Amino acid sequence: MLSNNNLTDEELDRHHCFESVDTVPHDSHTTAFKKSARLHQARWRERHALEIGTQPMRPEAGKEARPLGSRLELEFARHTRANFLNDKVQRAVEWRTSYREDHEMINKDRLFCDLLSSMPMCFNLFGNFHGDLDAATQAIRILWPDTPGYVSSMRFEWSPGRRDPKYLGNRSAFDVAFELNLPDGQLGVIGVETKYHEHCKPERKPTGEPLKQYVTVSDKSGVFKSNAISNILGTDLQQIWLDHLLALSMLQHPSGKWKWVRFVLVHPSRNPSYAKASSRYSTLLTDPSTFSTRTIESILDASVLPQQVVTSFRDRYFW
């Protein structure tokens, strides 16, 4: 059993997991979680005898390569699809990577070989519904019982319109989105952002026209307290806000086709950074109906996935 409290630099180094980026200043709990998550992925790779990757991913780029325990060797990962837990997930990945959306930001190398990345984790969790909209609808109704209608499509790394000024005008996207057909013929969406090893950190404050657009969407939505924006801009809550705004902008689209939206932040219960940030963000809302947060563990416990999938997912991501 891996313990956050018993990690040593020597153990991390032995498994090629001693990475300075895992240290979060003034936050020992998040630091311990990040180090433990990286080490767990390295040990999972070792148990399955999977080829170790390097940092950088592409040594031919001119930088010196060094082994990285939480990464698969790139060509091996592309050939074996070892970063994905089952055939259904692999088919979901192959389907999504078979086409491009305008201005998308999918890093295929990271998707295939980075064991820590939340992008392949999102596929490993939600890709099990790929091609089965009835199962997706049933799962959504269990996880969010007030969801109207039924799932008509499921899209990974999706935005209704990247850089489209009728939405946010930026390149924000949901990690996975469940599009809903509503009883009155209009559309709804549950847009999901998944996190695993990442921590919530301050972002540069937007300026100019982008900021004007964000403030307009925020104000028009009517879901934020009067002091919310001043407590969000330039802080660690800004990314959550922008993802939430993407969903809210859909309600404001001139077509009027979107009637019901919800943005959901999904993270491990043991990730203290996102647990605290989502709680703080919730206090800035006057209407919480368009924002929700769920732990990954609660999704696994909800009996929406086959037990074999739950078991393999827990083995892969938790300790």
Any overview of this molecule?
A hairpin with a 5-residue loop joins strand 4 and strand 5 (187-194). This protein starts with 8 loop residues before the first helix and ends with a helix. 40% of the residues lie in helices and 16% in strands. The strands form two sheets. A five-stranded mixed β-sheet has the order 3-4-5-6-7, with helices on both faces. Strands 1-2 form a two-stranded antiparallel sheet. The chain is α/β, with parallel strands linked by helices and 319 residues long.
Low-pLDDT sequence parts: none
Going across the biggest sheet, name each strand in turn: 3-4-5-6-7
Radius of gyration: 20 Å
Summarize the helix and strand pattern as letters.
HHEEHHHHHEEEHHHEHEHH
Strand residues, percent: 15-25%
Mean of pLDDT:
96
- In whole angstroms, the N-to-C terminal distance is 6 Å
Count of DSSP strands: 7
Number of helical stretches of at least 4 residues? 13
The gross shape turns out to be globular
Helix share of residues?
40-55%
> SS-based structural class?
alpha/beta
Q: Give a short account of the largest sheet.
A: 5 strands, mixed
